[in-house]
Amino acid sequence: MTQPRLYQSYAIEKIVSFFGAPGEAQSFCNGQWLIFPKHAICLTNVGEGPETSHFGNALHFYWVADQPYRVNSDPGWHFVPAQVVGSAGKKCSIHLFVRPPGSPELLYVYVGELGPSYMAQQPGRQNHGMARFELRPALPSALWVRLGGLPLGNLDSTSLDRALDSLRSPTTVEDRLGVLRQLVDFWHGPIKPEDGMSEAELAGVPLPLPLRWWYRWAGKRTEVMGAQNILRMPVNERHKYWQLTVEGDYLHFYDENQGVYHWSTLTHGDDPPVFGRYNSTDPWEQEDVTLSEHLILACLFEALGCHAKYGASISWLEEEKLSEIARTIPPIAIAPWRWMDGTRFFAGRGAFICAAGGSVWVGAKTEHPLQFLKPHVDDTWDYVAI
After folding, report:
1. How far apart are the C-alpha atoms of 86 and 107, rounded to whole Å?
2. Where do the domains of the chain lie, and which CATH numbers do they carry?
3. pTM of structure
């Protein structure tokens, strides 16, 4: 049987011919799924989720039901064919063909094979159900851009490297906030005037200079600092627990997302120290970073955990192997967080690393800065999209 070629475009009739005769396939979800005895085909439009099928990162594809389908007897998976879910999905090869929405041609690009889905989101306000699949090989960034789903923005890692390298010399708080500004621009694009909070919205809240600067500049862009952990807001009507609180001389401003660790600073000052603790009953202990330095590290942590579309991670890596990986990626000249036995950060040439308690996360905006990592990854790594 002739196989489709990766990243080539095909009409539906040609796609079907790769796997069997048209009459052999069962059709589900208005033809988005064609199931042959030994093969499954997904034919779908892709855009930016969660309302349409999309790529969450270079390795994870999310198929989104556009109607309230009932094609599976399992109530948790009723919107997606049973043949591509769980152990049943191992009995056939699953092939993904996609096209951007609004494409005038009825041609689908072959992007690779999918593993069976083990994770689903039930129907809600945004869609009629969503199932996650693992894609192999990882989606090339050039193709992702062509499909309209990867806005790359600023790729000038050289300027960012210079900014981060400046931290090795004495700097002022204004210098460090300038580094943070460049880091945000690299990962998230330009900040607009409407992204900041007004003085009225900050009225009555005691804020040291770096936090006031952040809220005034980009306080409404909560995904920058709060996609995983929580940067508390001056006022949070929906979630009072995630609102800035004053505890004596301390301003509680940042939390690990499951409440495992917490950070505070002082209610005043140009760049006060940061304090941390594990339990709410523990005393605050001073970290080795100032507030502006903490914000730089928080931005990096969120970028690696939630915004890097390419990367790799492992739950345990020996220090010697980490040293080999980081040989060409210099450490950032800011002391580690105490959280997770010391959380360290590295950055260089568009690649970023976070190492904490033996776990390592590596990330980048595209696959290109991460090619140095290939000799170091093997089957023990939990996630590899490079």
Report:
1. 29
2. 9-146 (2.30.280), 157-299 (no CATH), 305-385 (3.30.310)
3. 0.93
